[in-house]
Predict the 3D structure of the following.
Amino acid sequence: MASILFNAARLRVPAQAHPVVRRTLQPRFIYCSAVRQRRHGADDLITTPSGTLPAHNEERGMKMRERQFHDLVQFVTDRTGRQRVNRREQVRQSAWLRLFQLASQPEHLELVSELFPRWRDSGKAFTPAHAEMFARRCDELKCPLLALKVFGDHSKYGFGMSSLPAGRQLLQSLYYKYPLENTMTAASLFGIYGLPPVASDLTSCAMLYAACVRSKDPNAQVVAKSLRRDLTRQIAQTEEVREPTDRLVRAQHPTKPTLWLSKAVRRIRTAHREQGLPHASFLGMWDAEKKSLRRRSWRPAPTDGRDADAAPLES
């Protein structure tokens, strides 16, 4: 009782105020990690009760996240499938997005994928947002082969690659770091799921061409020759894409296709040079190389009697 009166007096809150009001006005502390403090320095808005942070705070946060993940997995398991433990409560569509976000390692996504058939058995269907988030998280956790396996076995998982952004994400995660056959399998899924052909999407076409042209397989070169015609046609019909330089803009997911396209163009030029192929002139002015351009600056005319117009300009 004495502590309540003390806190009320310190906050200048009437002692007879309702308990809910006292809890609302009670000072709250915002956690700031040690990394953020080092980057941004001290901030009056970010305080801690004792002025110091526990050393194991990040580890505790990871354990809490993993516990929330497994709790949600159990929640979904009990309420989906043909034989449900809990038939009263329903699982929302957002629960799957939350599971993808809580997953912190490939094994977590593997565990979630095993629950996909239960959703179909419950008479539910996944949305394009689920496909996009799953492909994205598989890319971020460096397990794109899991996404390829799930999308490639619809009869088992019932989880389709139902949107073009999901297909782009899958191609992006495979075409440069994994064998060509994986990229070709991902490209074939576009037709299976009724998506626009890879050759009709500029970003997807550039990534697939970059994968084929750097391969020494003769069949891959045949595919690259076919893709080159489509790529040339699309480039001629599209304005040059300028890669954003602002870090906040680059971090936004809607900007990723532009970054993927710019990176694919650079890799195409590099592959042509390494394979001894002709210069990729079909890319036209799409030079995505990052070059520092300096403006021409005026310089005083020389004093040795030469014509001032002959003085060179710095470039």
Observations:
- The radius of gyration is 28 Å.
